[in-house]
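Good morning C.,

I know you're traveling, so I'll keep this short. The sequence:
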Amino acid sequence: MMDRIHLGQVPRNSRGEVSYQVIPSVMIKAMVAEEELNQLNHRINRHNNPTDPFYYPNLESRLDRKAWLEKRIFEWQALLTE
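The tokens, ready to paste straight into the viewer:
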């Protein structure tokens, strides 16, 4: 069984964001969201240093995305346990 999903392999919309609505499997959606959340947390933890390649000046948008991902992961995992 696969433990991780490479985010380069998932469909994206015109803004470059993962397009969850075209992923048919709830299990795959949850795995993709968990991987995206892991990468997002990594970037959030390193946002304070402008010389860091993961520096991102607009932290609020990343925190909004994090909250959205956490909510969806919870919903999808609840569906999987039913």
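Safe travels,
E.
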